[in-house]
Amino acid sequence: MGSKLSEIGRFINADALISYVEERRHEDGGYCFVSVLDETNINDTYYAVKIYNLLGLEIPEREKTVEFLYTSAQMQTAVVAVAMAIEALSLLGARDLAREKLDLLFSKYNPLEGKFAVGLGGSEEFGTATPLEATYWATRALAAVGYRMDGETRERIRKFVMGFRKGDGFGVKGATTTMTYQALFTLKGLGYAVPDTTHFYRCEVYGGFTEVPYSLPPYLEPTFYAIRGLSLLGKRARYIRDHIRFIRALQNPNGGFRRSLEMGISNFQNTYRAVKALDELLKWY
Questions:
Q1: 257 φ, ψ to 5°?
Q2: How far apart are the C-alpha atoms of 10 and 220, rounded to whole Å?
Q3: Where are the alpha helices (DSSP H) in the chain?
Q4: Is the Cβ–Cβ distance between 251 and 12 less than 8 Å?
Q5: pTM score, whole prediction
Q6: Distance between CA atoms of 122 and 249, rounded to whole angstroms?
Q7: Please, what CATH class does the domain formed by 4-283 belong to?
Q8: How far is it, in rounded angstroms, from Cα 231 to Cα 184?
Q9: pLDDT tens per residue across span 70-94
Q10: Coiled coil located at which positions (predicted)?
Q11: Which residues, other chains included, contact 267 with Cβ-Cβ below 8 Å and sequence gap of 6+?
Q12: Rounded to an integer, what distance in angstroms lies between the CA atom of residue 166 and that of residue 185?
C-alpha cells in the first residue's frame, strides 16, 4: 500500500474500498456505481479517477478511461458532466485532449453572453442542483487545464456569485453549506479575496455537518463541503474525532460509502467525498 492508502486504511476498510471501485469498471473504460448495470457515465468515472488520484494509485487501463471520457463529452452532455470530463482527462495526463473540449464547455457556459447554465444538469443525486453548480464545476475544469480567463469574464462571474450572498454565507433563500463552499471556491479560483464566514461552524455538530445552521441530521455532502470550506479559509473543524467516527460509520459492507447514518446505498460520489473528507481531517488529527 502507498503511504496515503496506508494512513487512510487505519480508519476505514481500504481493501474493500479499492475492490468496490475496481469491480465497477467496465470494458469501455468507464465506471458505473451499480456493478450489474453496463451504464457507464462521466459522473461515476470522474469520481473513480478522483479516488485513484487521491490514494496515489494508477487507474487500471488508463488509455481506455481517457478514450471513454473524451468520446462521452458531446453536445448533448450536461455542462457539469463536460466540466467533469475535462478535469478528469487532465488528471489522467491527457491535458491536450481536455483542452479540445473547452469549445464544447463554452458553448454551454459563457458568462459574457449571460449563459451561466443554471438548472441545466447538475452533479447532485439528492435535491436540486444549486444555481452555482455549473459555475463551480466550470471553474474547476478551467483551472485543471490552466486556462486563463480575461478580466471581464472573471468580473461577470464574481458578480453572479455575489448575487447569492445571504448573511455571511451563500444561498438562494438562505445560506447553505453547499452553495457557500461553491461560492468561496469559485471566488478563490478567480483570484478574488475570499470573504470570511462562520456558516460552517454554525452547521457543525458532534459528528458531521448540516446543510443549514442549527439543524439535524448531518449528512455526508455538507460534511464534505464544510470541511473543504474550512480548509480553504485556513481554519479547522472543532470536533475532529467525532467527524472521523461519523465518516467511518458511513462505509457499507461492499466498501463504498453512503450519505447518512440511517440507511443508503453506496455510490462513487459519496465514496470520494468520504475519503477526501477523511484525508482532510487527518491533516488536523
A1: -125, 145
A2: 20
A3: 3-8, 14-22, 42-55, 62-72, 79-91, 95-100, 102-108, 133-144, 151-162, 177-189, 199-202, 220-232, 240-248, 268-284
A4: yes
A5: 0.96
A6: 27
A7: mainly alpha
A8: 11
A9: 999 999 999 999 999 999 999 999 9
A10: none
A11: 33, 44, 125, 256
A12: 16
